[in-house]
Amino acid sequence: MAQDTVPAPQAADAIDPSVIVVTARNREEKLQDVPLAITSFSAQTLENANVRNLRDVAYLTPGLSITSGGSEFGVNPVIRGQTNLNGGAGDPNVAVFIDGVYISNNTAINVGLIDLERVEVVKGPVSSLYGRNAFAGAINYVSKKPSLTDPHGNITAFGGNDGQYSVSGAISYPLIKDVLAVSVAAGYEHFSGSYKDQTNGTRAGGFKKRDIQGTVYFKPSPAFTLTGSYYYGKDTFGGSAIAYNVNNCGTRTNPPSVQDPSGLGFSQFCGHFDPDAHPVEVPVINPAAGQAGNDRKVNLARLNMSYDFGFAKLSSITGYVKVDQQRLTDFIGRSNGIPFILTPGPGVALLPELFGSNTNNKDFSEELRLQSDASKPFRVQVGGFYFSGKTFSTTLVTVDGTNLPAGQTLLPGFAANSLTSNGQLNGAKIVGQTLSHDKQYSGFVGADYDLFQGLTASGEYRYTHQEKDQLVIRNTGCPNTLTVQTASCNGPLPTPYLYPNSVNNVVAPVSGAFNFSNYRGTLKYQATPTTNLYASIASGTKAGGFNQRAVAAADGSQPDLKFDPERNTTYEIGMKNSLFNNRLQFNVAAYHINTKGIQISGPSSVPTNPGLVTKNFGSVHTDGFEVELAAKVATGVRVNAGIGYSNPRFGKDAFDFGAAGACASANVTTGVITPNIPQCASRVVILPANSQFNNSNFNKAALSLSGLSLPRETNWTVSGGIDMDGQISGDWKWNATANARWEAKQFGFNNNISYYGPRTIMNVRAGVSNSTFSISAYVNNLTNDHTPEIVSVNARLSDFGGDLDGYLPVGRQFGVTVGAKF
């Protein structure tokens, strides 16, 4: 793969670093001059490597991986092993931007890559530059600007196996030469899915993507520029491709019954998850339950303006993002459902379990930035940022009881409206509704000073004030809609559980403010004209949130109502080299990360609450490095290689109170611990009440996480590629590209008893082109590796617990691409 460190073919043998321009620090700089670990990809690089989405970008980036709970839209980037530990709740660890506009909804960060100029992956905390949630890094999509001088356009189409076909294109036209230009880009992509149920023939993992974007570029004078654009995407995703492995360890202790005489069985899965253990099953969802699959609509409007006064440049970025997402999908990956005990019985029934959600998200953001003359030895920037977001969501977790035998129902604990006896989901289908608001105000300042020839000191600081509120209804007895921040709930029994607390069936939203600061300090030294060294210290912050299981203390206070931001500090050194007349670029970075106040399940601070809530305690320590090499070894031959290593480990003060019961049974009164799973039983401890790590009035069993790896992250990524081209005849050229990526195994959960991987992905592409036409053949995932992208215990409602499910990636794809430029 030819990364931006090896740009598109040049006439000279040298790699020209002047063409590698990034805006990771909110100003244009040469990649090799920026004292940050950055991997950047040009449009030509993305085309050569057949990159179509964020997952493909990750395959080419050392230190970046992707986890996904199914389908293309729900992806979570992980940089340097810094993964979420609060079950996917709360804010992400990596901030994603499209043309400077922050995308808060992770279902919208994997939109179609149309009309892009480049993609930048910034590694390490850059919260002082980008604000909250750039905790582990940031990803920037940068769109092409319309040309003010020459009209041009392009069209590309491809087709291949498993129902692949796509057409996309863009047109740029100068309405007033050198002053005003417009462009329009659009695309359509279809994929039936790599996996098919062998019995009913239903496919999983497919999608339809539709994208269109219009852009205006206005430059009435050399000093003033305005760029405005509007993006609309309408996508439909099929059900996730799920493979399952049957539990093989631990002890399930249901009470003996006619249906389950022993009351025993395996409760957990240990060891390596094998995606081939059972064929993929794709249940057919009852049409009465609703339209199956996942639908997404994304609206993104942005307005970028700048005016250069000569001594300083004033810039503004205004953004509006609206995301509408609907989901109704199988929750378990079993064609016939999972077992539920019948009453009065005897026997069990196999019933499908479904998960649904409907989320509407609206965000508005504005940033103003003033930057001094970049040519001066002392450079400063100052600005402010405002963000306002609103999210309204409903969720449904239900059992389709169509096949319940006459006269039978399920054991107590399942509400009547979770079932159906006639193919209809009767009553209110909503299990929970959430209305939340998020406002953020930030001020920031940064400065660079050339101390003497070759040595530059830089500093950045950002202060953020964040206000959040949230109203949650947890039961279907409440109204189906929320239109204001205060709602009444007088539904039928059972009495609904309201969050935070209800008085006379009236509840107001919980609210809270979070204040935090972030900084970065950097020293950069130009040791030689082709070698830059740097050292930095930086902090990162992931936003806090609210606990839906909080209860009031005796004095009326709510000590568990919210959890605070999670913070880290990263120490990093790096070196960037351009050697042998720029034929070789070699970059290396090493880092140590201290994360404190991790957001993880812990004991309540309220003495009367025996449950668990999200708390800030415990630490994670990470050491790692990244190496990237790109070289032009001969005329028309470019190679690259990359290695990423990170070893995030829990500190001695980290415990998981929710995972202890699976590993061992603990009598917190007598102190007797009975092992269930040998692989983790020895880590179960009893923490006394009101002790250092247990501030409740109850003795608690907890799993010591000291020294264990973080889940859903890979310690090693190794990648390499080659890009070749040459003349055929006239202006016709041939081109061939091959890229490979290997990832080490990943643990599924905090207890490290199960894992998946390693993973090997190989993509190849070869074709011919001239100045107008191109045709190429491609194979993605040549090895047909279908290692899960994440594993989860998803059969949550069954009386028998759930086996381990793995969400599978796209399998081998091959086809032909044709294109034309005009």
What does this molecule look like?
- With 822 residues, this protein is mostly beta strands.
- The chain is 3% helix and 52% strand.
- It contains five helices and 55 strands.
- The longest helix has 6 residues, at 43-48.
- It is globular, with a radius of gyration of 27 Å.
- The relative contact order is 0.13.
| Total number of beta strands | 55
What is the number of helices?
5
Ranges with pLDDT <50 over ≥5 residues?
1-19, 415-430, 475-498
Q: What helical percentage do the residues reach?
A: under 10%
Biggest β-sheet description: 22 strands, antiparallel, barrel
Rounded mean pLDDT is 84
Radius of gyration: 27 Å
Gross geometry = globular
**SS content category:** mainly beta
As a percent range, the share of strand residues is over 45%
| End-to-end separation | 26 Å
Concise overview:
With 822 residues, the chain is mostly beta strands. The protein has 5 helices and 55 strands. It has a 22-stranded antiparallel barrel. A 5-stranded mixed β-sheet has the order 3-8-9-6-7. Strands 17-54-53 form a 3-stranded antiparallel β-sheet, with no helix packed on it.
Task: Chart the SSEs and their pairings.
Layout: E1 21-22, E2 29-30, E3 37-42, H1 43-48, H2 54-59, E4 64-68, E5 75-79, E6 94-98, E7 101-102, E8 116-123, H3 127-130, E9 137-143, E10 152-160, E11 164-176, E12 180-191, E13 195-196, E14 203-204, E15 207-218, E16 224-237, E17 242-245, E18 271-272, E19 293-308, E20 312-330, E21 338-343, E22 348-351, E23 353-372, E24 378-399, E25 409-410, E26 432-452, E27 455-473, E28 487-488, E29 498-499, E30 506-507, E31 510-528, E32 531-542, E33 545-546, E34 562-563, E35 566-579, E36 584-596, E37 599-603, E38 612-616, E39 619-634, E40 637-646, E41 649-650, E42 655-656, H4 660-663, E43 664-666, E44 673-675, H5 678-681, E45 684-687, E46 700-704, E47 716-729, E48 732-743, E49 746-747, E50 754-756, E51 759-769, E52 773-780, E53 790-793, E54 804-807, E55 813-821
Parallel strand pairs: 6-9, 18-50
Antiparallel strand pairs: 1-2, 3-8, 4-5, 6-7, 8-9, 10-11, 10-55, 11-12, 12-15, 13-14, 15-16, 16-19, 17-54, 19-20, 20-23, 21-22, 21-25, 23-24, 24-26, 26-27, 27-29, 27-31, 28-30, 31-32, 32-35, 33-34, 35-36, 36-39, 37-38, 39-40, 39-41, 40-47, 42-46, 43-44, 45-46, 47-48, 48-51, 49-50, 51-52, 52-55, ...
